[in-house]
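I am still getting used to backbone structure tokens and would like to learn alongside you. Would you supply a protein for us yourself, any chain you care to pick? Start from the sequence, derive the backbone structure tokens from it, and show both lines together. Go ahead whenever you are ready, and we will take it from there.
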Amino acid sequence: MAVKVTIDHEHHIAVPTAIRDQLRLHPGDQLIAHVRDGDIVLVPEHGDAVDQLRGLHREIWEGVDIDHYLDRERDSWETS
């Protein structure tokens, strides 16, 4: 989606409602601004990346004894 915005006299721009809604942006959210090949790219910063990834694919560890898994992995390092 491309939307035209205008820089005001204080060098501010407003993020259009359609984009705010699509990206679930709220007052106080921060955006990271990059210049890429002569274009301005704004990327939402949704908190700490570690917090965002916490719990991702946790289902692959269901039923796995983590200590046993780590012991096996470490043993394999010694035999390689």
